[in-house]
Amino acid sequence: MSSYILRRMVLLIPVLIGVAIIVFSMVRLLPGDPAVAMAGVHATPEYIAQVRANLGLDEPIHVQFGVFIRRLIRGDLGISTRTNRPAVVEIWPRFLNTLSLTFISLIIASFFGILVGVISATRPYSLLDNVTMVFSLFGVAAPVFWLGLILMLIFSVRLGWLPSSGMGTPQHFVLPAVTLAAHSTALIARMTRSSMLEVLNMDYIVTARSKGLMERVVVVKHALRNALIPIVTILGLRFGMLLGGAVLTETVFSWPGVGRLMVDSILARDYPVVQGSVLLLALLFVLINLFVDILYAFLDPQIQYG
Amino acid sequence: MHFFRSKAFRQLKKNRLAIAGIIFILALFVIAALAPYIAPYNPYQTDFFRTLEGPSRQHLLGTDDLGRDVLSRIIHGARISITIGFISVAIGLAVGVPIGAISGYYGGKIDILVQRLVDIMMAFPGMLLAIIIVSVMGVGLVNAMIAVGIVSIPTYIRLVRGSVLSIKNNEFVEAAKALGVRESKIIFKHVLPHCLAPIIVQSSLQVGAAILWAAGLGFLGLGAQAPIPEWGAMLSQGRGYIRTAHHVTTYPGLAIMLTVLGFNLFGDGLRDALDPKMSRD
């Protein structure tokens, strides 16, 4: 087990280096002078020269990469060209906002997805099962930004129940989190249903039932525990989808998250902030996937990881 | 044709949802092909006396903030969305399939290198990777298409590599080797045809995903730019008027959802028919 975790972490090293190379290359692949890109189009020649020296742009490319990594380790992502403040200071609070939105959505999606999936599986082809199926088909196909606008139209413009944008109170979380969770809820429900149906036909479930156990105990204690294993594996991937969807959801609800910051920074050519946001989001995704892989190894006693 | 007499096709015909998907996709193709003839108005024709009008007899789905006919713009948008779906899938196929096949067939160092590169690409959530690519290449419809295509490459590599791995140790491959058939011919003529089923299924689902992602980029302002009638960009322009004229956002979104639904239903049906092992339900 510990050797599996160790091997999994060793495999992380090339990925992290790769992510760093991609983020490093972003600015250098842009047409034109990377120093101008980093300093901003309105920067003075002196400042551009300073940025050039700072990034080591006259040095060979591997030296530049070394400089980039050393600055990263110190937490130095450069200076935002829009606000002239360190990019880290711009990004970090927004990153935390994205994190809270994404985690709440993941919890909503897991809870409702598994609940609905289990109920559907215990009553296959019932009315409830069919309704769930139709909802999940639409839930997967609906663009998240459109769903957000429709929910906003119904619950804040028409009914006036919930705030339409910004953050602050718990009510502000409801619409963005539900919007973001919809797609994942639908997929998790479908996944849970098929996984549960498979498990419920197994011999040990028949045994459990014939022992006279209550149906609820059989479903929850015996079946769900085993059905959860494949579901956990997709949670990591779901998290990536949620981070991608968060960019869109944040735009719809004016949520001050890192996704929106990144898009605004792209449009304003504020590359230090773009680089920092990309780096943090990718790092988070990689770590979550590591966590899910380890969790999977714990959950599945059948698989020995050598 | 062979396919129409196959068991898979009979299976597919029995799946009512898949048939609904096919009918919708065909309808979409017809609409896209005939767009200039069936659209009641020119999608770029502005009318400043009739802005943000609700649905009426003259404008079945109303007009947008510049007085353009929403229905006509959605009809022309079908062309754009279909193009996005197919071009980006073509990019994913053209790059991902050969790399995946070579990686799986030869194994060894090439395979390790390819797998690490795939790991790195997959370290970014799909939408984020698309945004990164657009931010480097510049915003616009064509770049958004390319970005979405590139994002799908690792999925194809993984898929094809896995299929090739399960096929390459079969006797007919050994036989071809023993006969001295060129390796490139073995890969493309003998091994890959057996991997077609999962590739076709993935491509059908990928068309839907690509349309969704490109619409997302359009909505963020990183994809199609005004005045192109791309559905995502239309939604983005209309969202400022959600309080007064929601039809400007509602209908383009509906178009996206139904299109993606059509490709998903078709893809799910194909998967059940072609490859029962892959079935999720």
Secondary structure: number of strands of chain A: 0
SSE string of chain B, helices as H and strands as E: HHHHHHHHHHHHH
**Helix content percent band of chain A:** over 70%
- In the predicted model, the low-confidence regions of chain A spanning at least 5 consecutive residues are none
Average pLDDT of chain A, rounded to a whole number, is: 85
In round numbers, the mean pLDDT of chain B is: 87
Largest β-sheet summary of chain B: none
CATH architecture term of chain B: Orthogonal Bundle
Order of helices and strands of chain A: HHHHHHHHHHHH
From the alpha carbons, calculate the radius of gyration of chain B and give it in angstroms.
22 Å
Count of strand segments of chain B: 0
Tally of separate domains of chain B: 1
CATH T-level fold name of chain B = MetI-like fold
| Helix vs. strand class of chain B | mainly alpha
Summed up, the helix count of chain A is 12
How big a fraction of the residues of chain B is strand?
under 5%
**In the CATH hierarchy, what is the class of chain B?**
Mainly Alpha
Radius of gyration of chain A: 24 Å
In CATH, what is the homologous superfamily of chain B?
MetI-like
